[in-house]
Amino acid sequence: MKTNLYSSIIEKISSDKFSSIFILVDENTEQFCLKLFIKKTGIKSFNKIIIDSGEENKNIDTCVSIWDQLNSFKADRKSLLINLGGGVLTDIGGFAASTYLRGIKFINIPTTLLGMVDAAHGGKTGIDFKLLKNQIGVFNDPLEVLLDNDYLKTLSKEEFINGYAEVVKHSLLTDKPDLTFNSLVKLDLFNDSEYIINSYSLVKNEIVKSDKYESSIRKVLNLGHTIGHAVESYSHISDEIIDLKHGQAIVIGIINELYISHKKFNFPLRDVVSVKKHLKKYFTLIPLKENDMENIYDLMVYDKKNEGSKINFVLLKEIGKPVIDQIVDKELFKESFVFYNE
Ligand SMILES: NC(=O)c1ccc[n+]([C@@H]2O[C@H](COP(=O)([O-])OP(=O)(O)OC[C@H]3O[C@@H](n4cnc5c(N)ncnc54)[C@H](O)[C@@H]3O)[C@@H](O)[C@H]2O)c1
Questions:
Q1: pLDDT at 304 over 70
Q2: pLDDT per residue over 247-269, tens digit each?
Q3: How far apart are CA 225 and CA 266, in angstroms?
Q4: Does the C-beta of 128 come closer than 6 Å to ligand 1?
Q5: What span, in angstroms and rounded, lies between the C-alpha atoms of 23 and 83?
């Protein structure tokens, strides 16, 4: 089945459609993924662009360094950028490509679980700005997204698990019986990873297909992210809690937003409890104090998904039945953290 995985990319890079090929890597994907990519594609002629890994580098300075390197290799509008890496790399690589010379084509080859099930798909590209996540960016689809879980073999267990938060999110948004949360819990994250990647990336792609620019239904993908993004940003500026990875922060967002769903829409408490219990199998839930909550709330007010001073949430009536644009008052927000901390 894997034999033909690369045929479309091989055809593209060996055609004369592109004047030059660039491969964007960070120091880890250069070490662990580039050789495999070269072996699988047989690509001989390309320029390599290296950036530093990590969310702290998903910023304008890194973007400038990508543009600089494209310039120095004389990239033109017919150049192709191949993004080989996790969500940070495909987000910034997609943004750099979309803005360089008003847009060159790019291909995403995700190398983390999170990238494979989520970040590499859907055409959201961007960088963080002034502590706010993904504040600057554009919607632009990659030419192709290639999913090859051979890259996951070198990923640390922690990074692997990090991507599972988005898998759980997708399982809460779908109403397909064989993919809902109750089916997901019967799978083994490590042994069933290929099935998980293919199935749960489809959940996202189907949602995106019907609303590319997030004017309505695509907003459901923000489940867990209204609180989660604020928690993630807060963890990077606070001395009170450790720096959290995207997935760790989204887990906190999911638990809290499901509790709020229970309070506002009668989402079954037993489901909130079983999602929390399941997530605890993989993630450590760090305690959050009163002062943390206040700071997270303030950060949320500035999040881009909010209109005016209103904070819009995605909530669930039941598994597979999300509702968008919900306003939540501060008291309920704080109450959800009491449940989270229990
Ligand atoms: N665009 C979207 O729709 C979307 C959706 C969800 C998340 N995101 C973004 O994704 C980012 C998080 O992505 P991530 O969790 O993949 O993190 P990441 O890109 O930082 O990768 C995690 C770490 O793993 C390393 N790595 C990657 N592949 C490897 C491999 N195969 N072997 C060894 N090491 C490897 C990286 O160098 C990095 O150190 C966040 O910035 C988030 O905002 C975007």
A1: no
A2: 999 999 999 999 999 999 999 99
A3: 21
A4: no
A5: 6
Backbone angles phi, psi at 78, to 5 degrees: -100, 15
Calculate the CA 53 to chain-centre distance.
15
Q: Provide DSSP, 12-55.
A: HHHSTT-SEEEEEEEHHHHHHTHHHHHHHH-----EEEEE--SG
Question: For the domain 161-341, what is the CATH code?
Answer: 1.20.1090.10
Phi and psi, residue 242, nearest 5° = -70, 160
CATH topology of domain 2-154: Rossmann fold (3.40.50)
Sheet strands (E) in the chain: 20-26, 47-51, 79-85, 105-110, 124-129, 132-139, 144-145, 312-318, 321-327
* Residue identifier of the C-alpha nearest atom 27 of ligand 1: 86
* Residue matched to tokens 């989402």: 267
58 close to 91: Cβ distance less than 8 angstroms: yes
Ligand 1 lined by 91 (C-beta under 6 Å): yes
Verify whether ligand 1 is closer than 6 Å to residue 282 (CB atom): no
At 63-98, the pLDDT tens digits run: 999 999 999 999 999 999 999 999 999 999 999 999
* pLDDT mean over 42-56: 96
Sorted by where each begins, the domain ranges of the chain are: 2-154, 161-341
Written as six digits, the tokens of 216 are 């309505």
Residue of 313, 296, 254 lying closest to 279 (CA atoms) = 254
Decide whether any atom of ligand 1 lies within 6 Å of the 55 Cβ. yes
